[in-house]
Design goal:
208 residues, 60s Ribosomal Protein L30, Chain: A, 4 helices, 7-stranded mixed β-sheet, globular, 29% strand, alpha+beta
Length: 208
């Protein structure tokens, strides 16, 4: 089976993977605003998080899973159109990821969710990490999904390794010297979204 990465749907062949000898797996970087889906036992998804959140969704019976990476909880009314930009918001990223897993043979009643990130690493009066944590917990509960693991909050950046076939996830706290690069990347995207509002409509996947 191919490894899929999606913006609006699973089905795009993913490039840029590399072999990770420690884990004996093909590693796929899940960048901000993206998600990846796979049912292959030799695939590992990797992302680095500060205030952002990554959700790992897995169907243990189908052996398929995926990971996303989003920046802010909800799409503002004025920012609701570009596929690339809209996927940076949790409200869009979660819908796309869940529906992509369903399209690959998962069933909603079996889905298990693990969530990571949401640290307070950006100096701002608005605690972006806390907002992200509140959003993703509320989303999972509202959608009737099963939250089987979480590691949210704190003030340290994280690296997440997720094995979509088995649902196994590993969290590694990064050293303090790695934090500035993570914060700089998130601030860059926040600045872009503020300066360039997204126009139009967002079309979410319909549930099967």
């Amino acid at each position: 089976m191919s490894l899929d990465s999606g913006r609006r749907a699973a089905g795009l062949r993913l490039g840029g993977t590399y072999y990770h000898p420690q884990f004996q797996a093909h590693a796929v970087k899940v960048l901000l605003g993206r998600h990846a889906i796979s049912d292959r036992p030799d695939v590992m998804m990797v992302t680095t998080l500060g205030s952002c959140v990554a959700a790992c969704v897995h169907d243990p019976a189908a052996g398929v899973g995926g990971m996303n990476h989003f920046l802010l909880p909800d799409v503002p009314q004025s920012d609701a159109g570009s596929v690339d930009d809209a996927a940076r918001y949790g409200a869009v990223a979660m819908e796309w990821l869940v529906n992509a897993v369903l399209l690959r043979g998962g069933r909603r009643s079996r889905l298990e969710v693990k969530v990571f990130g949401a640290a307070r690493v950006i100096a701002s009066s608005a605690d972006v990490g806390r907002r992200n944590a509140d959003f993703v917990r509320t989303y999972v509960e509202r959608e009737g999904l099963r939250l089987v693991g979480e590691d949210l909050g704190g003030n340290r950046a994280r690296r997440i390794h997720f094995f979509p076939h088995s649902g196994r996830a590993l969290r590694r706290l990064l050293r303090p010297e790695a934090l500035p690069q993570t914060v700089s990347r998130e601030m860059h995207f926040l600045s872009d979204l503020s300066a360039s509002p997204i126009e139009g409509e967002v079309e979410l996947f319909a549930e099967d």
